[in-house]
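Run folding on both entries below.
>entry_1
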Amino acid sequence: MLVLDANGDITSKGALFRRAWSELYAGIIDYHPNSKAVDVDAATLTVKLELEDVRGDVLNVLPPMKAAGVADPFITANGRWCEVDWLTYESKAAPRAHVLGDALLPAPAMPKSAHMANAHGKACAAAVAALLRDEAPNPAPTLTNTCYSFVSDQLAVHVASVHKYDLGERTMKSVPGAGGLSPAMNEREARYAWDWARNIWADGFA
């Protein structure tokens, strides 16, 4: 399996993924950073990179990410993302329109994860409820994040972080020393991952 990454390195849990690939998939997964796809020839199953072409038997191509088309009226950053007031999630492009989740231009060190989108939703709902009562929204919201990744059917790893509103910079900033990474892939992490999944499914779809 050849992994072509336009980024200069793995952006999250890099050391943990590299260790998993080395110990579980040596000679199977071949990771190549700085490999930006500029075109795809579906007829020949060829990915065209900036300096070379790579052909595969099966291609799984992830195009450059951006907010979905429904959010186009609210995109204000790089032609891709929506900027908001982090106290209310009100769009900077449209008053009284609230945007959250992966459509947002993230705050510094804020991940795009299911857990974070869920936290956005709760903070936004609380802010809207306050506004409807003619009250000020929470002036110092704090969001948490945990992101699990399975590296096999039995082993998983995670990264966690905490993000608090900075009044001076008017953005969410990660809290130093809060959160962290798994020490290593293990079966306990996999059980925690399934527990997290069941809880967030119940929370999001109940």
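>entry_2
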Amino acid sequence: MDEQLGRLLREVDRKKTELNERSRPAPEVVESHQERFLYESVFLNNTMEGNQLTADEVELVLKEDAVIAGKPLSDHMMVFGYRNAMRLADSYVEQQRRIGEYELFMLHARMLIDKPEMAGEYRAYNLMIKGHRPTSHEKIAQKMAQLVEAQPPEYAHTIESTAFFHLRLAKIHPFGDGNGRVGRLIINIMLEQAQLPPVIIRIEDRPAYYAALNAYDGLDGNRQVQPMQVLLAELVIRELDILLAL
């Protein structure tokens, strides 16, 4: 662990302790924050996948089951799918349920209600993504079993092991669609199970996020985990600061 990551993880732990020692905000404040987090999560995660609905439209769709004229029905389905997957994720957090293959399939099936033919199923074909070649489909089941059964080192910080899991899942790319959305949802499950706040990758975070994914892909022969760990630590600190300010 280098100095930058170590400093960030110490700051995470310090702010987490400070938050735990604070009085809980009024229920209406907590509810408002959670509602805003839901809308922003659904909007920002889906726009990363090309969804055309604006932030205001996403809120309208979720609040009133509205249909936005001129926008694809599939975009509306993506909104409900991500909302449904978030609800399932919340139940996994409550139950402290370890993420295995079954949980992954269920999250994926809840999310891809617009593509039922591939929901909850590993892909059965190979593909290229912007010059990157994910795991061949013949090896997906083996690689996924290894991923979900692996135990992080006892000394690893939650942020370190969560970032590594996300990178491995992205590299395997087990599903035909929805890998990024499911992967980012699992980040938040793992964080919340460790009493850390869930995060949102905002528009301004995307260059660093994609760079971190590329750094792990290792096309230059130097596979790196730390860029994602640093980014995730920074995102957690941002959310802790928001909660401390409530």
